[in-house]
Amino acid sequence: MVPALGPHALTARLAHHSIKTRHRHRHSWRSGADHTPWLGLLSPPVGTSMFLPSFTHCSWRCLLFRWPDAGAMENTRPPVTGRERPRDGERQCAVIAPFGLLALLLPPLSLGAPMSTAESVNQAYNLALDMQMQTSTLLQTYLQDQGRPFSNPGFSFPTLSLETLPSTDMPFEIWHGLEDGVRLSLTQEAFWSFSQHFRIAMVDQHILHHGDSIVEDQLWEARLKAKGLVGNLAAIMTSLGLPSPAANTPLGPVPLGDSAYRKKCRGYVIIRDYSFWTDRAVTFLGELKAKYSQ
C-alpha cells in the first residue's frame, strides 16, 4: 500500500529517483505482476479519480516512480555517463514529472477533500475524450506493425470476436434506456477488462517483434488510461452514493493465442472493441456532464 504523505514529502520522494532507476524498471510489467506499488497509477484505489494528460516531451514510462527501497534515501544520485546519459526530453521529464504527478495525485480542493459529482464527471469525461482521440492512431499503428493482411488498406474482420471481452452487441436504444448507475457499473467493468486484455496484447507484441515494436508503448499507454478511467468512474459512483464496485478479479484464459497470426488477430479485436467502448463512454459521460453541470 502506498503510504499517505504530505505534498512536500511526496515531492521529495518523487524527485529522488533518477532516470537510471526508471530505466531499470522499464520492462518489469512482463513479469505478470500488477505493480500496485507504482503510486497507484496502474491500479487506482477504488473511490479515487485520475486524469492523465498527454506529455509530448517524454515517454509515459518516465512518469512512473517507485518508492525507494530500504536505505535508498541514504545514497546520493549516481553520476550518469556514457550510454546511460539521458536525452534532452528525458532531462525535462526528470524535472517536470515529479510535479506533474503531484498535481495528478492531489485532489483539486484541499488535501483529502472529496470531489463533487460535477468535478468527478468532468474529469472522467476529459480522460475518455483523450482516450477516444488516441484510439484511431493506436489501431492504425497496430495494423501497420503486423504486416499483411492487417496492413492492407481497409482491413476489417467484423466477425472476429473474443468471448472474454465486454460485449458490443447491446443496441444503443437499450443502452441509452438503462439507469445511470447501471451504465456506470458496466462501463467500469468494461475498461477494467480492457486494461487486463491490453497486458496480454503487450506480451504478444513483445514475443512477435522481439521487444522492438512501437505498439508496445502505445498499448501500455492505453492500458494506463483505461485503469485511470476505472478510478474516475468509481469516484463518480461514490459521489452519487452508489454501491462501491466489487473487487476486481484477474482475467482468465483468453483464446486466439496459439499461433503468430492468431495473436495478431487477438490484439486487433481488443483494440477494435476498445474503440467501440471508448466512443460509448464519451457519449455517456457527455450526457452526465450536461446533467450535473446545471
From TrEMBL:
Signal peptide: none annotated. It holds the Pfam family PRF. Transmembrane segments: none annotated. It is found in: Secreted. PANTHER family: CARDIOTROPHIN-2 (PTHR21353:SF8), PTHR21353. Belongs to the IL-6 superfamily. This is Cardiotrophin 2. GO terms for cellular component: extracellular space. The lineage of its organism: Eukaryota, Metazoa, Chordata, Craniata, Vertebrata. InterPro entries: 4_helix_cytokine-like_core (IPR009079), PRF/CT (IPR010681). One of its GO terms (molecular function) is cytokine activity. Its main location: secreted. The keyword Membrane does not apply. GO terms for biological process: cell surface receptor signaling pathway; positive regulation of biosynthetic process. Keywords: Cytokine, Secreted.
